[in-house]
Amino acid sequence: MKLVSLLLASLFAIQACADALSANTLPDSVREALQSARIPLDSVGIYVQDIHAAAPLLAINGQQAMNPASTMKLLTTYAALEVLGPSYTWPTEAWLDGKLEEGVLDGNLIIKGHGNPKLTVEHLWTWLHEMRNRGLREIRGNVILDRSAFEPQDIDTAAFDNDPNRAYNVAPDTLLLNFNAIRFHFSPDAAGISVYTEPALDGIVLDNRLKPIQTRHCADWDDHLKFSLTGEDGIIRINGRYPVNCGEHDKTLSLLPHQAYFEAVFRAIWRETGGSLSGTFESGIVTPTAELFSTQHSQPLSEIIRDINKFSNNVMARQLFLSLSLDRSSPSANYPVNTPATQASGVPAATPLQPASIAASNAILQEWLARKGLEIPELVIENGSGLSRIARISPYSLAMVLRDIELNPLSAEIEASLPIVGMDGTMRRRHLECEVKAHAHMKTGSLEGVKSMAGYLQSRSGKQWLVVFFINHPHARQGQQAQDALLDWLMENG
User: Fold this and answer.
1) Mean pLDDT, to the nearest integer, of 373-388?
2) 348: Cβ–Cβ under 8 A, 6 or more apart, which residues?
3) Mean pLDDT of the chain
4) Contact present, 387 and 72 (Cβ < 8 Å)
5) Cβ–Cβ < 8 Å for 246, 217
6) DSSP 8-state code for residue 277
């Protein structure tokens, strides 16, 4: 019996060595694609494991802390689903600080935000029309914007890539409206180039100084456009040259501060409803004497995370990460309409005792990981979106998060939020003619020097695989072929 035990132990040891060897041996197609892209193996992190297996099928630099780019959103959205709950919604509230009589508010209208990641122009239009139907026609005071639910965000929007007007660089805000984005539509005509914006911006003037040109390179149609904002007089100037032979185009930018943007859109819609406003827009908080008039609720979190993951929406992810530390005792969404908003302490019920912050959300995330027994000592989260130069996690740790998701009752919500390979989201144009199409849900990430993917694949054998593939290298952009090759290989051989 002792001899048999020794033989079995030897066989297990040999098998373990064989597993280790195979786990560190790349498929030829992946290795060749990396070599062709001039990406060395030490700049790559890969972890592939059968959901039900105890050891990985493939592990290359699995424990190495690397920049995951937008695959970090997997951790943010998973934590939010458990901490906040899939049915969680964000209220945006309208409070009346004054007397409303016969359609006239003799006082201030206070708009209180709680960080809704997807308050669109359409939502605001519907909400303002609903307020008109409730009997509010004329505001003889000011509109007060209460943005106190988040700690003030001292963010340099130019720090990431020296392009502060790009839509993905928008800073979080509790009254984030329409992602703070302006879509400029350019249309050549007999008079030159006409320009208009979506949404309409009341009080903002477009100074169009574009000069028409001809070009052979329409892919670079916007290379010679320059946008500037004159804050004092509310003028957006557009200088440069526009290639008229390239036809109509759109360009989306973020040029206005959050409060100025909210005011410009609010005024435009309010006028459209037939409403009037005598005063100005000011910053402030809900006062103890104010009464809740109307509440606009966001979509539930289970729907919000689909936009975040399928389309890799950085602004929404940052809003969601901050929302982890919102004071749960303070939002007044469940308060009856027209009830005074004063707690026994005298503090308005709509005012958080502590504003949400990056530090507080990080602490809540770490507590959540500890409760789940997920140890990620190398984890660095800057903002929850992955739009970061300092964010770090290892392929192994992210794979363990994916495994934990798969064993969670909420797994269907996360998996449904991931892009379907060859079908939608950021993976809609990849593997269009391959067998792996529609057989994998993969979150992607891309930064300068970073190319990543992480998610699930069901191979031809019927097995469910965890897949994490990071590339941190100046040639990372050329590494997509290697990532695609891994999915194709795993589909056939897994």
Assistant:
1) 96
2) 285, 286, 287, 288, 290, 341, 342
3) 89
4) no
5) no
6) E
Q: What is the DSSP letter of 473?
A: S
What angle separates helix 301-310 from helix 73-84, to the nearest 10 degrees? 180
**Is the pLDDT score of 30 beyond 80?**
yes
Q: 194-213 burial, b for 16+ CB within 10 Å, e for fewer?
A: ebebebebbebeeebebeee
For 112, the token pair is 């209180």
User: Domain coordinates of the chain in residue numbers?
Assistant: 24-82+360-493, 182-253
Range of weakest confidence among 240-254, 313-327, 427-441: 427-441
Bridge partner residues of 442 (DSSP): 455
175-195: average pLDDT: 95
pTM metric for this prediction: 0.89
Short-list 87, 96, 34, CA closest to 61:
34
CB 440 within 8 A of CB 457: yes
| Architecture category of domain 24-82+360-493 in CATH | 3-Layer(aba) Sandwich (3.40)
Residues pairing with 250 in the sheet? 185
Angle at 455 between CA 450 and CA 457, to 5 degrees: 125
H and E: helices and strands count for the chain: 11, 18
Q: Is the Cα dihedral 486, 381, 373, 325 positive or negative?
A: negative
What single DSSP character describes residue 283?
E
* pLDDT tens digits, 384-406: 999 999 999 999 999 999 999 99
Sequence-ordered list of residues with C-beta below 8 angstroms from that of 422, at least 6 positions apart, any chain: 428, 429, 430, 431, 432, 434, 436, 437, 438
